[in-house]
TrEMBL record, chain A:
Protein name: Multifunctional fusion protein
Pfam family, one: APS_kinase
Residues in Tr-type G domain copies: 25-243
Known partners and oligomeric status: Heterodimer composed of CysD, the smaller subunit, and CysN.
Species assigned in the record: Borborobacter arsenicus
From TrEMBL, chain B:
Protein name (database record): Sulfate adenylyltransferase subunit 2
CDD domains: Sulfate_adenylyltransferase_2
Role summary: With CysN forms the ATP sulfurylase (ATPS) that catalyzes the adenylation of sulfate producing adenosine 5'-phosphosulfate (APS) and diphosphate, the first enzymatic step in sulfur assimilation pathway. APS synthesis involves the formation of a high-energy phosphoric-sulfuric acid anhydride bond driven by GTP hydrolysis by CysN coupled to ATP hydrolysis by CysD.
Substrates-to-products reaction catalysed: sulfate + ATP + H(+) = adenosine 5'-phosphosulfate + diphosphate
Organism the protein comes from: Borborobacter arsenicus
Family under the similarity heading: Belongs to the PAPS reductase family. CysD subfamily.
Record pathway: Sulfur metabolism; hydrogen sulfide biosynthesis; sulfite from sulfate: step 1/3
UniProt-listed InterPro entries: PAPS_reduct_dom, Rossmann-like_a/b/a_fold, SO4_adenylTrfase_ssu, Sulfate_adenylyltrnsfr_sub2
Keywords, in A-Z order: ATP-binding, Nucleotide-binding, Nucleotidyltransferase, Transferase
Nucleotide-binding as UniProt keyword: yes
Lineage of the species this protein comes from: Bacteria, Pseudomonadati, Pseudomonadota, Alphaproteobacteria, Hyphomicrobiales
Length: 642, 301
């Protein structure tokens, strides 16, 4: 490339002209994917080398590395150019996606080199999410493998419409046309339902460069383009989508300026145009499109601008300015494709944080419609989605989101799911369509309010959530406390794990998914009871932090009181009031909390009761004292009662 | 037919989007300002992202006390001209122990005066997000890094378990003590940087332009003797040569190149025919194999 560049500069009238020429080049973002050892990194190394992107000092380093880690004998191991992490070089595998940059006289390229190992599928998805084309590599000796299919399905789900089927290592099968044709035919048949606009099969050898930048002398039978010729000329046309402007940031430097900063997700807008604020339906006109150096007459897809409206209407981060005639969906329930990334499986009923480009909401998977088998596309019934699995789900969010179907708009139809406790990005979603019932169910507005109901009982509603191992003393303490509260004239109710399982939750077992649903139902019941003005005592093992967090968020601020009944496992097993520990240890009960199913202790409970060596009465005294303080603090705060 | 954005327009928009995302979702961001050309571009983009407001975060310079004098002058002038909030942090423990690149070697010096100093500054102010000007085309381990790159409470990077980064949806959630390093220039190449500086007329430190400067030839490198602290070895002589710098760091660790490029077009055309990468002039990258990844895992930018 140094030589190519130098020639270009010499022939260009000046550096500025040369740079202007660079500026006119279009950009293609693509990724390489496929199974392990199909030669993805080698192909990128070859592309960089043949387009002369590698500097002398990098070549020297490559020589040294090839001797130290190389797998290609005396030849240079091009994969070492892209496998940038020590662990990758030592193990000879790609763990994470690497981004590389190169240019030819016709086009600029950003290539994501993605890992082939199944366990790193999330990193392949990362690379694919910003790409317009995928090079699917296949080892000519192996043909189509499971990972070839998985990556093709993920590429398709993530909106990639152009595939290059690179049948690599063709030198190792004597440049045999029959083998090439067979693989190409099988792939086209497999991919016929994946919605690709183009599939271009190319026989090549990344190691020796056949059909990479120049036509191979070894394959007279192949008449198609070389890989680089194809990459230089393939047309990527974006579907024209209506105007969408997700508001990222409200810019208010002073009282006279209120601008909405964001990036135009699709379409375009001009000063004077009418827009609608998606969530409220209110309309306004664009007064100014502000940029440093002077206002812009219009803004187009991809541009980051600041918009000032002619009307002081309410708009905040997460809302979207849209074209009045073509509005997006605004709904709190929708169906979506999901790719799952996390070691902890996706569980229906568990609460996650959902994030779109600028909005965020609490989300629950209400239904796992099916899992997709990556080999034959079969829709399989499933109770959870394990790491690297793909499925279709229904999602319910706590407040409505603005979105389009992902197939119509990659920017406004995508979301990620985040684990509430670890903050890990656990899944990626592509919205299919809103669910009808979101439009049809509205909250019934009630005349007698929660406050009125509580006031009639002369108490402040509360949900005391007792969590701890089986046999830790939750129910004993809760019962004693209820007696005392009752004597004091309070209106109470106990929701007990065992009792609820005999009625409301008798359809649920003890799998992780069922435990999540068990807690969700109890939390909802507790919320209704608190709404009725009651003091609710919930006595449930509730082993998972995420579910207790969901319960907490259902209640009003300060209403949820987490009581950790902390009794060590050995002590619980010794007490064994129901004989369950003895049976579980013998293996007669599966998924027993503390034994073969985890208990996640609360990190910051309102009350932490260490029961060892103390009587239940002492524990109840502590609780009563705490509740008394809470009530008197409230009275001070309210400014009445004294 | 709509006007299509140019390549630089897209890079600019992406960087601005990233700046705003951080301002909207973090409580205490900071921009690492290292005075070089990439920092100059970053600063220019930060001013654009929040116009007409000022960037809603301060700028932090970790001063190793061995930067070129012209860099410090330039830094102070920019802070004054643009009116941004500049924080300068120096590792006073290192100063007390007289840590320097000559006696302690580039590795120890960089670790104490830069990596440790940076961690000190981030902890002292409790910053939860820090912008840096690193680009993926600079170095192999940087090519692997996310735009929003998670750091645990000891500022360490775990390259083997990075968060997936899908589309333009960034996971900005962290627990107290954890932080995110943010790289708005991830997808820029060296030529993009120069082209943008040319297009936007962005001021840069004059050291990038060729000029007669006092240099010493040492270990095959041209080192500029910026002050008396650089003690000459036997046989070494200081001579004035027409040189410039491709990257800027601590002066004893940054090699000059002989050049007669005195303006931006000159620099760009020189770069186009260059046969070595820009980090070749950085002595710290070559101390040991994988040394950039190692430094980054310890909290270096």
């Amino acid at each position: 490339m140094q030589h190519v560049r130098a020639e270009e500069v010499v022939t260009a009238a000046s550096v500025q002209d040369y740079l202007a020429g660079q500026e006119r080049k279009s950009l293609l973002r693509f990724l390489t994917c496929g199974s392990v050892d199909d030669g993805k990194s080698t192909l990128i190394g070859r592309l960089l080398s043949d387009t002369k992107q590698i500097f002398e000092d990098q070549l020297t380093a490559l020589h040294n590395d090839s001797r130290k880690y190389g797998t290609t004998g005396d030849d240079m191991d091009f994969a070492l150019l892209v496998d940038g992490l020590e662990a990758e070089r030592e193990q000879g595998i790609t763990i994470d996606v690497a981004y590389r940059f190169f240019a030819t006289p016709k086009r600029k390229f950003i290539v994501a080199d993605t890992p082939g190992h199944e366990q790193y599928t999330r990193n392949m998805a990362t690379g694919a999410s910003t790409a317009d084309l995928a090079i699917v590599l296949i080892d000519a000796r192996q043909g189509i493998l499971r990972q070839t299919r998985r990556h093709s399905i993920i590429a398709s789900l993530l909106g990639i419409r152009h595939i290059v089927l690179a049948v690599n290592k063709i030198d190792l099968v004597d440049f045999d046309q029959e083998i090439f044709d067979k693989i190409a035919g099988e792939y086209v048949e497999f991919a016929k339902n994946l919605g690709f606009d183009t599939i271009v099969p190319i026989p090549l050898s990344a190691r020796y460069g056949d059909n990479v930048t120049s036509s191979s002398a070894n394959m007279g039978w192949y008449e198609g383009p070389t890989l680089v010729e194809h990459l230089e000329t393939v047309e990527i046309d974006q579907a024209q989508a209506p105007f969408r402007f997700p508001v990222q940031f409200v810019n208010r430097p002073n009282l006279d300026f209120r601008g909405f900063a964001g990036t135009v997700a699709s379409g375009s807008i001009a000063a004077g145009d009418e827009i609608v604020v998606a969530k409220s339906g209110k309309s306004a006109r664009i007064r100014r499109i502000v940029a440093q150096g002077g206002d812009l007459p219009r803004a187009v897809e991809g541009q980051a601008v600041t918009i000032v409206l002619d009307d002081e209407i309410e708009v905040s981060r997460g809302n979207v300015l849209v074209a009045p005639a073509e509005r997006p969906h605004v709904a709190d329930q929708f169906a979506a494709n999901i790719v799952w990334f996390d070691e902890q499986a996706l569980l229906p009923g568990r609460s996650y944080l959902l994030r779109t480009e600028t909005d965020q909401a609490s989300a629950t998977v209400t239904d796992l419609s099916y899992r997709v088998n990556v080999n034959d596309f079969a829709h399989e019934a499933a109770k959870s989605l394990a790491m690297n699995e793909v499925g279709v789900v229904n999602i319910s969010v706590q407040s409505p989101l603005v979105f389009d179907a992902f197939s119509n708009n990659r920017a406004t139809g995508a979301f990620i799911l985040i684990d509430r406790i670890t903050n890990a990005t656990v899944g990626a979603g592509m919205i299919l369509h809103p669910l009808r019932r979101a439009d049809n169910i509205h909250w019934q507005s009630l005349d007698v309010g929660k406050q009125a109901r509580a006031a009639a009982k002369h108490q402040k509603p509360a949900v005391l959530w007792f969590t701890g191992l089986s046999g830790s003393g939750k129910s004993t303490i809760a019962n004693l406390l209820e007696k005392k509260l009752h004597v004091a004239g309070k209106h109470t109710y106990i929701l007990d794990g065992d009792n609820i399982r005999h009625g409301l939750n008798r359809d649920l077992g003890f799998s992780e998914a069922d435990r999540v649903e068990n807690i969700r139902r109890v939390a909802e019941v507790a919320r209704l009871m608190a709404d009725a003005g009651l003091i609710v005592l919930v006595s449930f093992i509730s082993p998972f932090r995420a579910e207790r967090q969901v319960a907490r968020e259902l209640m009003e601020e300060g209403e949820f009181i987490e009581v950790f009944v902390d009794t060590p496992f050995d002590e619980c097993a010794r007490r064994d009031p129901k004989g369950l520990y003895a049976r579980a240890i013998k293996g007669e009960i599966k998924n027993f909390t503390g034994l073969d199913s985890p208990y996640e202790p609360p990190e910051k409970p309102e009350l932490h009761l260490q029961t060892l060596g103390k009587s239940p009465e002492e524990m109840v005294d502590v609780l009563e004292g705490w509740l008394g303080e809470r009530d008197s603090a409230d009275q001070l705060y309210d400014g009445d009662g004294i | 037919m709509l006007a299509k954005l140019s390549h630089l327009d897209r890079l600019e928009a992406e960087a601005i989007h990233i700046f705003r995302e951080v301002a909207a979702t973090f409580s205490k961001p900071v921009m690492l300002y290292s005075i070089g050309k990439d920092s100059s571009v970053l600063l220019h983009l930060a001013m654009k992202a929040f116009y007409p407001a000022k960037p809603p975060f301060p700028f932090l310079h970790v001063d190793t006390t061995w930067k070129f004098r012209e860099m410090i002058e330039f830094r102070n002038a920019m802070a004054k001209q643009l009116g941004f909030d500049l924080i300068v942090h120096i590792n006073e423990d290192g100063v007390r122990d007289n840590i320097n690149p000559f006696d302690h070697g580039s590795n120890t010096h960089t670790h104490i005066m830069k990596t440790v100093a940076l961690r000190q500054a981030l902890d002292k102010h409790g910053f939860d997000a820090a912008f840096g000007g690193a680009r993926r085309d600079e170095e192999k381990s940087r090519a692997k890094e996310r735009i929003f790159s998670f750091r645990n409470s000891s500022h360490a990077w775990d390259p083997k378990s990075q968060r997936p980064e899908m589309w333009k949806i960034f996971n900005t959630r962290i627990l107290p003590g954890e932080s995110i390093r943010v790289f708005p220039l991830s997808n820029w190449t060296e030529i993009d940087i120069w082209q943008y500086i040319l297009q936007e007329n962005i001021p840069i430190v004059p050291l990038y332009f060729a000029k007669q400067r006092p240099v010493v030839e040492r270990d095959g490198m041209l080192i500029m003797r910026d002050d008396e602290r650089m003690v000459l070895r036997p046989g070494e002589v200081v001579e004035n040569r027409l040189v410039r710098f491709r990257t800027l760091g601590c002066y004893p660790l940054t090699a000059a190149i002989e050049s007669d490029a005195t303006d931006l077009p000159g620099i760009v055309s020189e770069m186009l025919i260059a046969r070595t990468s820009e980090r070749q002039g950085r002595l710290i990258d070559r101390d040991e194999a994988g040394s950039m990844e190692k430094k980054k895992r310890e909290g270096y930018f």
